[in-house]
């Protein structure tokens, strides 16, 4: 049993009074892990970020900020075992930790590395000069950091990665941040945040941590501020409709629910290497982080003649997945983040089961003993015989170890079904036929932020359907929120203003000194 942690918000470069508020419980046995603090004063935080953090960050060059990211990554790497220990209590196995904690640190490293190619300056040019008249006059885009605050509102499922994936491009761009994690598991976010503060790598006011309610924070933002939200579509819709956000054209990026797809090409048979690769990927996505990944495969599509074979193979593989205490190395899948989250999964599986039959799972798991009170749920496969007539399977995300297998007749059908998700973060395709690949990419890319294509030749090096991809921009359109996650320098755009300068070439040369 761990001591109960009194959590604190971090405001004006100090930790505020800790604990005393709502209790946060362990995902694995329901015991109390931490207590939330009282609500922080958001006006004070905003003022500090604008008056202290912003100027300090903007006084640094892009390259200096890149070195700061590296120092943060080094500090977190050196103490990641501390984070692992806490992460188990969120229900995550050691393998899941690699995703959340190491993945987050990796994103900082990638951005630190990208910074080396940026100017050792405070403003950067974008693209080449444009000839805009016949004479001595030219055009040039420049990018400069906004002078406000970046507000990051994160989902509960990745307490560390969720914070770091937004923090890296924002700090590199030169904006101060208020981090507001999801309350479930925020003791892990707080611990990672503490390590960054204790590293001494950050200037005063660069980052603040807001635990609990945001109060009227969104009402106090203006056009120099930027909000990045990750969470449910319902919350995103509410927040982006805030009248102040609309009136002041506050930048608002949302990453939300997504009915991601994986497709087995119709060039395969049950003996093809791509068949086995597909099965492995579907099961991995169902069970990693107990399926609480925005990118998890919710819809697995197979040629109709392979539906039974694919179903059997998935069920066989799932049956070998040991669900148990995530601290136990033998456990392949841990718990959901909490009992409330499990109730949501139960309700959504019930909705899905109106259009699809439950093949395996579909119920909470009572593991008993020391794990009594844990939020365990069985890996659950549903089968939808007629996905063309279905609506719920393309619209409702059960945020847990849940996926629905469905048949398609030909590639045109596969494209139509994939796109029926109305915009997703990611699709993967397992095919060895260039014609199948070409048809899927040309028919479906516009509905997907990212597409991973795997065959027998690339499988060993493939990065994975759900793996973070800091190098490329990959937000999902439509239902997925229309955001634009990461993507190296592109990921900095929500925090930079692009201005088109028009002047004599000699005048534009002064930019080299900015
Ligand atoms: P959520 O309930 O929408 O909450 C998301 C964040 O918004 C949390 O920090 C939450 O804080 C905060 N929030 C809720 N109401 C708010 C309000 N009125 N004002 C300000 N902040 C508010 O989502 P969740 O349950 O944490 O996460 C699960 C969902 O996230 C799933 O649907 C999943 O698909 C989605 N997700 C999407 C992505 C992606 O990249 N597309 C990634 C991860 C997760 P509290 O926790 O304190 O309420």
Per CATH, the superfamily of the largest domain is Aldehyde Dehydrogenase, Chain A, domain 1
Shape: globular
Q: Runs with pLDDT <50, length 5+?
A: none
First-to-last CA distance: 55 Å
Could you give the order of strands across the largest sheet? 15-18-19-14-13-20-21
Number of domains: 2
CATH architecture of the largest domain: 3-Layer(aba) Sandwich
What does this structure look like?
- With 514 residues, this protein is of the alpha/beta class.
- It folds into 2 domains: 42-256 and 482-511, Aldehyde Dehydrogenase, Chain A, domain 1, CATH 3.40.605.10; 261-471, Aldehyde Dehydrogenase, Chain A, domain 2 (3-Layer(aba) Sandwich).
- It contains 14 helices and 22 strands.
- The chain has helices spanning 42-58, 62-78, 80-88, 94-114, 161-173, 186-198, 233-240, 243-247, 273-287, 307-319, 339-352, 411-419, 434-444, 505-508; strands at residues 5-6, 10-11, 14-15, 23-25, 32-35, 124-131, 138-145, 150-153, 177-180, 207-209, 226-230, 251-255, 261-264, 299-303, 357-360, 364-365, 376-377, 380-383, 402-408, 424-430, 448-454, 496-503.
- The strands form 6 sheets. It has a 7-stranded mixed sheet, with helices on both faces.
- α2 (62-78) packs antiparallel against α5 (161-173) and α3 (80-88) crosses α4.
- It is globular.
- The protein starts with a strand and ends in a 6-residue tail after the last helix.
- NADP nicotinamide-adenine-dinucleotide phosphate binds at residues 153-157, 180-183, 214, 230-232, 235, 238-239, 255-258, 294, 397, 399, 425, 480-481.
């Amino acid at each position: 049993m761990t001591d109960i942690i009194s959590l604190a918000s971090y405001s004006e470069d100090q930790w505020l009074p800790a604990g005393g508020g709502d209790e946060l419980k362990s995902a694995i046995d329901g015991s109390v892990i931490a207590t939330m603090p009282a609500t922080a004063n958001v006006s004070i935080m905003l003022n500090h970020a604008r008056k202290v953090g912003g100027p300090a960050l903007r006084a640094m060059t892009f390259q200096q900020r890149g070195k700061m990211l590296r120092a943060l990554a080094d500090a977190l790497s050196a103490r990641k075992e501390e984070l692992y220990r806490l992460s188990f209590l969120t229900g995550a196995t050691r393998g899941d930790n690699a995703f959340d904690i190491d993945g987050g640190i990796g994103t900082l490293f990638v951005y630190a590395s990208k910074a080396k190619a940026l100017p050792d300056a405070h403003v950067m040019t974008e693209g080449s000069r444009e000839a805009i008249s016949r004479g001595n006059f030219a055009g040039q885009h420049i990018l400069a950091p906004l002078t406000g605050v970046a507000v990051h509102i994160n989902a509960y499922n990745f307490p560390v990665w969720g914070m770091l994936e937004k923090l890296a491009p924002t700090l590199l761009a030169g904006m101060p941040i208020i981090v507001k994690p999801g309350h479930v598991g925020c003791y892990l976010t707080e611990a990672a945040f503490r390590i960054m503060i204790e590293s001494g790598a950050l200037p005063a006011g660069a980052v603040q941590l807001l635990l609990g309610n945001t109060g009227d924070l969104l009402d106090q933002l203006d056009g120099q501020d930027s909000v990045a939200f990750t969470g449910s579509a319902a919350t995103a819709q509410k927040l982006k409709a805030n009248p102040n956000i609309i009136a002041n054209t506050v930048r608002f990026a949302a990453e939300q629910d997504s009915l991601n797809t994986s497709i087995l090409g119709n060039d395969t048979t049950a003996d093809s290497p791509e068949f086995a690769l597909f099965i492995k990927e579907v099961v991995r996505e169902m069970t990693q982080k107990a399926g609480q990944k925005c990118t998890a495969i919710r819809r697995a599509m197979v040629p109709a003649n392979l539906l039974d074979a694919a179903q059997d193979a998935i069920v066989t593989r799932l049956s070998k997945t040991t669900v148990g205490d995530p601290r136990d190395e033998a456990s392949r899948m841990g718990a959901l983040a909490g009992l409330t989250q499990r109730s949501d999964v139960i309700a959504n599986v019930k909705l899905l089961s109106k259009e699809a039959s439950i093949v395996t799972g579909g119920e909470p798991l009572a593991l008993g003993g020391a794990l009594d009170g844990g939020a365990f749920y069985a890996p659950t496969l549903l089968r939808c015989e007629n996905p063309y007539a279905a609506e719920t399977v393309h619209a409702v995300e059960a945020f847990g170890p849940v996926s629905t297998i469905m048949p398609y007749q030909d590639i045109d059908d596969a494209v139509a079904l994939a796109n029926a998700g109305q915009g997703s973060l990611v699709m993967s395709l397992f095919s060895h036929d260039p014609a199948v690949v070409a048809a899927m990419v040309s028919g479906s890319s516009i509905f997907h932020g990212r597409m991973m294509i795997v065959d027998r030749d690339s499988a060993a090096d493939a990065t994975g359907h759900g793996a973070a991809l800091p190098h490329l921009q990959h937000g999902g359109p439509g239902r997925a929120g229309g955001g634009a996650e990461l993507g190296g320098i592109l990921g900095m755009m929500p925090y930079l203003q692009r201005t088109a300068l028009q002047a004599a070439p000699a005048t534009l040369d002064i930019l080299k000194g900015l």
